[in-house]
Amino acid sequence: ELVPTHPMFVGGVLVADMLVSFFVGLQFGDALTPMQVATRVIVSMATTAAAAWMMLSMRDVIARYPATITALFGCDLLFTLLSAILVPLASSDATAVKAGIIDLIVIWSIAVNGFILHRAMNVTVFIGILLALGTAFLADAVLRRIP
Hints:
Elements: H1 7-28, H2 34-58, H3 65-89, H4 95-121, H5 125-144
Helix pairs in contact: 1-2, 1-3, 2-3, 2-5, 3-4, 4-5
């Protein structure tokens, strides 16, 4: 509830998250072209934004949308930066360690997103985490439909 909602700040967070996600996706994307990485980043962010809008609309707290989106994408930016720093620290032949790091960051990000949704929607933390998990599954399902 204390996240700045000035349009320039919200736009800056969105652009920063998009750019960092794009460059990290290029670095760790398994032989994906830049266009495929850009498409995945945009579709994933759009899915998250649309799901948040629908959830906030259902709870009749749509006025909280700018702050919620800024918090969700700002935290995603931090988690993406964290993975960009930690994954290369694992040795090149330690794929299990890299996968473990990524899995822990994903679980942590779902918990944080759940807390954000809990505060934005006036629901319990458990419901917020379930909604964040559902949003993550939705984004993954949409991404799997992209060639």
